[in-house]
Structure formats: structure tokens, C-alpha cells
Amino acid sequence: MVLLYIFGFVVLINCFYYLLFSRFSFIKPPNKSDGDLFPVSLIICAKNEAENLKSHIPFWLEQEYPDFEIILINDASYDNTLEVMESFAKDNLRIRIVDVENNEAFWGSKKYALTLGIKKASNPRLIFTDADCKPSSKKWLQEMASQLKNDTQLVLGFGGYQKKSGFLNKLIHFETLMTAVQYFSYAKAGMPYMGVGRNLAYTSKLFFDANGFMSHMDIPSGDDDLFVNQVATKKNTAICFSEESFTYSIPKNSWKDWILQKKRHISTAKHYKFQHQFLLGLYYTSQLLFWLLSIATLLVLDWEIPVIIITFRLLIQYLIIGKAASKLKQKDLIYLLPFWELFLVLTQLSIFISNSASKTTQWK
Description:
The protein is an alpha/beta fold. It folds into two domains: 2-24 and 274-354, no CATH class; 29-254, Spore Coat Polysaccharide Biosynthesis Protein SpsA, Chain A (Alpha-Beta Complex), CATH 3.90.550.10. The chain has helices at 2-25, 50-61, 81-89, 110-120, 140-145, 167-188, 204-209, 225-231, 255-269, 274-300, 304-327, 337-357; strands at residues 40-46, 68-75, 95-100, 125-130, 134-135, 154-157, 159-161, 200-203, 237-240, 247-249. It has a seven-stranded mixed sheet, sandwiched between helices. A three-stranded mixed sheet has the order 5-10-7. Strand 1, helix 2 and strand 2 (68-75) form a beta-alpha-beta unit. It is elongated and about 75 Å long. The chain starts with a helix and ends in a 7-residue tail after the last helix.
């Protein structure tokens, strides 16, 4: 019976998080803004992204927005990234180029390159995306920028991935979905903790008041999530999740590349504020314990009560996460939600173990 009580308690913790996630799942996109659209600067940092820039600069240029500039940052590329930027800038006055050479103090730092780009921007409202990102519509810039009003200085958007065939692509989509559900839900609950640089907006005032990235300049990653974790508050943060506001990036094609990416993200998360680390850690632990205890109770106890508890928890999951998946145009993931969750939990566990066993000098 003690095992059953523990299992029930873990499921209650799971349901607490699903209740939190419902803050996002059941809200509607805000009404379209009829106010003034202030001038904005779209900032893209690119390192060896010549081919992606050729594909995506036209999509950024065709945004239906009355007054915007595009700041293209060449982050010490050794391919023809700079030449591609210059070829577009020659015929488009909107484009301004920042050519960054390696700096001895900040060698290879995207944060250093972004800082130079932000200083170059003419407008106080800044929109960020990556070189491999395609906006979902010609209204993307308008949707994101319209949220930078009143006291809002930071806007979290959804950065999805292009859909391709294969198991890995499905897993990437599920992990991206769950990450978005969490940071949108925490923001709606007044506890914003991260955003993604694939689709992010903030003001230059917010950036300079926080001394930019200086508090975590020595950490290679985190120009998006660590900065948001540092400056986001209940009052200054908004979310933008209309379908027209999405961006879509090119996903990793190999397990090795994706796992390396996840290792970097997990290593960065340990620098979040303690309350965020605790809540995120408890959520993951409760997920892992749910699956372990599901097996244990079915093997040790009479099956009727464990089956009822498991079914209840899965129904809550389908209701809350299924609604969010539909909102973020990930309906194809709904049918196998428990399977994707279990596989992602096990994958994350292996990454945690691998990171713990790795030497801390790997980032230096």
C-alpha cells in the first residue's frame, strides 16, 4: 500500500504541472492590435550560413511591416556568408551589415557578435531570429512587434522545426512542443524563465539596463534563454503564439548532432535561477517516477487500482498537452503522446548521466 500511496502522490505532482500548463493550453491568442506599429530592427547573427541566408533573406524582406531594418551580423564566418549579405544589401536599403572579426577577449562568442549588432540597430524595439529560420507568414514581424507595447519589453515567440520524415524528426518536434508549453505556461503564471532565439523580441533599453550578456558572457550558450532568465518578470513579459507569428528552423538530421545540441541546452539550464531549476527538475523527476512506478505497481499490486491511476493521468495529459499541440500546429504528435514522453524522458536521462560524467573543462 505504501507503494500505491507514493504512486498516487507522484501522479498528483504530474497533475499539478498539467494544471500549470493549462494556463497556456486553454487561452486564446490576443486580439489583433490596431495601434501604431513602431519602427523595429530585425537582428540575425550568422556564422557560416551562406546557403541559409540565400534562402531566408527574401522571406524577411517581404514582411508586411511599414518600417523595419534588417541587421545582418557576420560572426567571423569562413565561408561566403559576408558576400551573400553584401549582395542583398546592395539592392535593399533596409539591410545593414555588421562584420565581426574574432576578438581575443571574446573569441567565437555569439553574445559578443549580437551585442555589436544590437548597438548598430537604429530602433529601440528588436526582433531576433536565426539564419536557418523561415517565418510562417508575411505577418510574422507585425505579430511579434505588436506585443512590444505599454510596459512589455520582452516577447516570447514559438520557434518550431520543419517537418520531415523519420523518428528523430518526430522526437525533435515533441521536445520542442513540450519546451514551448513550459515556457509559455510559466510566463502566463507570472514566472517567465526562458525563450528561444529563433523567435524572440525585446527592447534595447531592457538589454542595456541589464548590461547585456555580461553576467553570463563566459558561458558559450544562453544568448536567448539565460538572458530571458535574467531579465524577464511578470510585468515586462508577453507571449505571442498566433499561427502567423511562428518561425520554422531546419532540424538536426543525425542523433549525434541533436544529442550534442541537447547537452548544451541542459548545461545552460543549470545557470537558471534556483526556483526555475527546482520546478523544472521536479517536473522531470515526476515524469520519470511516473513511468517507473507504473511498471512497479502493475507488477507488485493488483492491477485494477494502478490501471485507474495510470488512465486518469494519461487522460489529463491528452487533454492538456493535446490542446497545446493543436494550438502550436503539432496535431500529428497527439496520438502517441505517452510514447513520445517516455522516449524523451529516457533520452534526457542518458544525457544527464553523460553530462555528469563529462569533465567541466569541455566548454573552455
